[in-house]
Structure formats: structure tokens, C-alpha cells
Amino acid sequence: MANKPRLTEKHYSGNGYYMLCSGVLRCDGKCCSCDELEKVVDRLGEYEDKAEQAIATVELPCKIGDFVWAIRSFKGHEQPQRGIVSDMLFTKDMKLQIVVKYVARGEWGRIVFATEKEAYAAIRERSGQ
User: Fold this and answer.
1) Tens of pLDDT along the chain (129 residues)?
2) Which residue blocks in the chain are alpha helix, DSSP H?
């Protein structure tokens, strides 16, 4: 978060957070009276704390149960096949491996893709076409 300024600060009471803008003289305070907004501010504050503590978060390209396309290799021939994501894991070098049930296992954008078109494009690129 070094390049993004905080929007919240932990409340002096230790319960929840408050928006930094509420301390500015031009703030009329009306935006701070909403219960739902308080929930949003608390959630944002928690995320900012985690980011400052260098707790890494990863945005996953898909989720378990999604339908995706994977490149399946058989006897030297590569073919895209549609399948369902059954598992995800990180390798020792922190690369995300996506398991497409009964089809393949590999990295997003290299073996596993959102569309059939992307999978075919990767096969063509590998073969130099």
C-alpha cells in the first residue's frame, strides 16, 4: 500500500475504523452516519492493515467448480478440452497450479484458459503458426 494512501485509521477505542476524511474541516459528517457505510469502512480498514503487514493476497483467475479450457497433450498432439476446475495449489516456487478434472493440470495462461479461443491461440503460438 506504499503507493496508495490509507483511507481509514483504527479508532482510538480500538473498535473498528474511521474514515480519514471525517477529520477534515470541510466534512459535514453526514456520510458517516450510515450503518452500512461503517461496515464498509471496517472491512476496508482490515484490508489496509493486512496490506501494510505484507500479508499477500492473491486474486485467483477462476474458482473450484468453474468450467475452463485446458490443453491436453496426448502422443505429442495438443488439443483444448473443456473441463471443470477441481483443485488449485501452489508449487514450491509459488506458481498457481490449476487442476482440471480428468483433463490436465497447469498454470493459468499456459495450460489452463478461460476460453477455447485462448487455448487454441496458445497451441498455435507454441507450434510457431
Assistant:
1) 446 667 777 888 878 777 776 665 555 556 655 555 776 778 788 888 877 776 666 788 999 999 999 999 888 899 999 999 999 999 898 889 999 999 999 999 999 999 999 999 999 998 886
2) 35-52, 116-127
Q: Is the pTM of this model over 0.70?
A: no
**C-alpha grid cell, residue 92:** 514450491
The residue ranges of every structural domain in the chain are: 8-52, 67-127
Q: Residue for cell digits 502422443?
A: 75
> Contact at 8 Å (CB) between 19 and 7?
yes
Closest CA to 116 of 74, 73, 68, 76: 68
Q: How far is residue 117's CA from residue 11's CA, in Å, rounded to a whole number?
A: 50
